[in-house]
């Protein structure tokens, strides 16, 4: 071996020694290796014998060090200096299961539970039909088998197979329910109360196990069994007090569970089951003689689920869809079904006076709910729940109006309510109230134009004109409130106060024109027509001339206000109205009016247009100067 080969070999030994030393330091830092011994450096050859070593490729890595790299902010410099082949990063674990895993572990599991329960039921039926064993033996086999499955499931739970353990518990519980049902319904071995208590015991045991194991799935099994119990022990007779008392106890127990555990699905399952059982009983057994007692139970059910969204405990971190529904859908559904249920209990002869007060009572209840604190809901859920309660109160007040009134009072009620809500929305800075106010105002305008019946033909002094006056006043209040309010953020641009004020002014002008048109019609009908077809032509001529004159006068007045207030918005409305007047005079009045009225119509229109043109040409109000206009 010549000197050059010896020097290259010694250099490779030194490089390998340094790399091994760095790897040992890394392993020692992780506690895998004790403190390593310092590397022994190979003696360097004398200077006169050392020649420049040719570039030698680094030795191939015999293995990859089984270490994981810490975050850069916590990693020592000497660790980052390790060669790249010594550093490996672990792949991030998946948070969600694949579709295959969900199908195999969850979907097949639930189908398997259903199949086992069906199999047990068919086995019991087969045993019943063939008389293989006596009635008492069959029931005992079912009870022992169900208890054994529940006990066996605990072994799997301790070994970490929770889902499979819950499946066995579900099968065992179902077997116990079916066995008790067979003992009561098929063989009459036990009485109804005994079967009822036995099924309650099974439900209570499942609830207890779900609590100590913190298993929402077991709680759902317990609730499913608890809600099935009244059906299994039913004798076909009306036991209202026993049934509803049992449901109340079950609902209160669930309310306690969802207040202590984040089990929002349990709340929906219980509410659905309770509603279905109550509906089934009502269809089958309810009579007006039971109205008082039934109303008390309905009130208890309604109050439990009305307070539940404020008591339910939601999951920490990201809320699930069930959590969101618990504070959004459930309050609205409970409010709607509760009102329908109580309205159903009312005597049909008392509905006309009691129905509106029922809606007012619901509105008062939800206004009172706004004063209660939100316990257990997410920080963002409290305001959302308060907003929903406020919306429910407004909706019930809106419902009370058509239940109590008809015709013009219905229209007036909605218009006044909309104006009051708009004032409250400005004061409280509530976008929700703003939207609800607009809905009420839209209902009022629709009723004013469509539902509002015809008035007597007495001009001006009639109910129709009074209703229009109320509508104009309501929108005047809205326009004033909106013009003095201020939008809080850019997110309000869709329903900005400025837009509401402008729309209100447009509606006011439109209502004035419509109201005046009705009164012009009534005046000339009363004065010249009165249903006599011989006078119809005169009536039409007088009415059309008056329409044209009013349009021109109103347009001139609106233009004057626009000049006075320096409002381009009002002036554009006036110009549009004058353009409509021009079209009407040249297209309609020219052929319909007599010569005298035709002359007056054209001269009046011409004089008005020349005056408007003169004001604009001379710019008497200095409108051309910048900054001299208001929107």
UniProtKB/TrEMBL annotation:
Residues 40-62 are annotated as: Disordered. Keywords: Membrane, Transmembrane, Transmembrane helix. The chain crosses the membrane at residues 107-126, 132-151, 163-180, 186-205, 217-235, 241-259, 295-313, 325-346, 352-372, 384-403, 432-453, 465-483, 495-521, 541-562, 569-587, 599-616. Residues 40-51 have a biased composition (Low complexity). Pfam families: DUF2339 (PF10101). This is DUF2339 domain-containing protein. It comes from Occallatibacter riparius. The keyword Heme does not apply.
